[in-house]
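Field guide to reading this record: the first block holds the primary sequence, the second block holds the structure written as discrete tokens, and the final block holds curator observations. Each block starts with its own label. This record concerns PAS/PAC sensor hybrid histidine kinase, catalogued under organism Caballeronia humi.

BLOCK 1 — SEQUENCE
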Amino acid sequence: MKVLVVDDYRTTTDLLADVACSMGHAVTRAYTGKEALVAANGEGAFELILLDIGLPDMNGHELCMRLRASEKYASRRIFSLTAHDDVHERFDMSCFDGQLSKPLSLELFESLLSGKKLAEQSAP
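BLOCK 2 — STRUCTURE
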């Protein structure tokens, strides 16, 4: 599966990418919204995208809305990734397929990568 991990904390991005790669997935890393848009507009489409809400150049909600506006990502799996509990108060999270809380459990991340239904994920 092609996976895009977007987080400005390089340690988080790199750790998640390493786990996904070890499971046999093709992973692209982005540390800003702009880098994520460039990657997303490349050849092919990502099947799973994890977006940090607190990016330095645009928030993850705006990035998700931009991705969803394209036919390429209208129905792809996009999850928010955040350490903030109040994102539902600040943003309409309905553009996401779910919300993942930091720190993200390895078991939950592996379930997401394997395509299993996530019991712990928050509904948008």
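BLOCK 3 — OBSERVATIONS
Confidence is low (pLDDT under 50) at residues 119-124.
The two ends are 23 Å apart (CA to CA).
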